[in-house]
Amino acid sequence: MTISLVAGLGNPGRSYAKSRHNLGWTVVEALAKKRNLAWRAHSSFEADIARWDRADGRTLWLMKPLTFMNECGRAVGAMARFHKLPAGAVAAVYDEMNIEIGRLKVSVAGSAGGHNGVASLLEHLGDGFARFRLGIGPKQPAEIDLKDYVLTNFTPEQLTIIQQKLDLYVQGLEVLLDCGADQAMNKLNRKDLP
């Protein structure tokens, strides 16, 4: 199915901007910057939204829900319903604890895996959306509470890895948008990617 809506998951506010939980926002913002798209606040969707009129004639919407992570499905669901989009036309870009930092993985189905943002999407949108999962693991130190880990900032070393990978993340997201989830999984879910 063709993807028409890309939601970068994160938390609003300057204090969260560099946190691990906001990596989805960071990547969607980087895509918008690359394509010279302008963000506009839309209170009816509780989100910042950018419209991308592509050369192939498709209109794609990028969004950053402003509802906080735990309620992001409310914003994404409202936007999807407004545009009459099924879950399969939506891609969520978010941080994933169970993937090593610097790696990414595309999937389509499954549980929330302890991710409150994904749980909210499943509640308000249903399953079947594309999942563009960005590694932030493993959790260190191991005994740190998961909530504390995802809401703290990347270490300088981790931030360097993220900055080095940002272009690759954006290119990978473009593969998903151009080719769909099945082809993106074949191309991006490989261990030999740099």
Question: Can you characterise this structure?
Answer:
The chain is globular. The longest helix is centred in the C-terminal third of the chain and has 24 residues, at 156-179. The model has no long low-confidence stretch (mean pLDDT 95). The chain has a seven-stranded mixed sheet with strand order 2-3-4-1-5-7-6, with helices on both faces. It has 194 residues and is of the alpha/beta class. It has six helices and seven strands; from the N terminus they run βαβββαββαβααα. The chain has helices spanning 23-34, 72-82, 116-124, 146-151, 156-179, 181-188; strands at 5-8, 40-42, 47-53, 59-65, 90-100, 104-107, 130-137. Helices cover 36% and strands 23% of the residues. The chain has one domain (5-188): Rossmann fold (3-Layer(aba) Sandwich).
Could you provide a short overview of the structure?
With about 190 residues, this protein is α/β, with parallel strands linked by helices. The chain has a single domain (about 5-190), classed as Rossmann fold, CATH 3.40.50. It has six helices and seven strands; from the N terminus they run βαβββαββαβααα.
Overview features:
alpha/beta, 6 helices, Rossmann fold, 194 residues, 7 strands, seven-stranded mixed β-sheet, single chain
Question: What's the structural blueprint in terms of helices and strands?
Answer:
Blueprint: E1 5-8, H1 23-34, E2 40-42, E3 47-53, E4 59-65, H2 72-82, E5 90-100, E6 104-107, H3 116-124, E7 130-137, H4 146-151, H5 156-179, H6 181-188
Parallel strand pairs: 1-4, 1-5, 5-7
Antiparallel strand pairs: 2-3, 3-4, 6-7
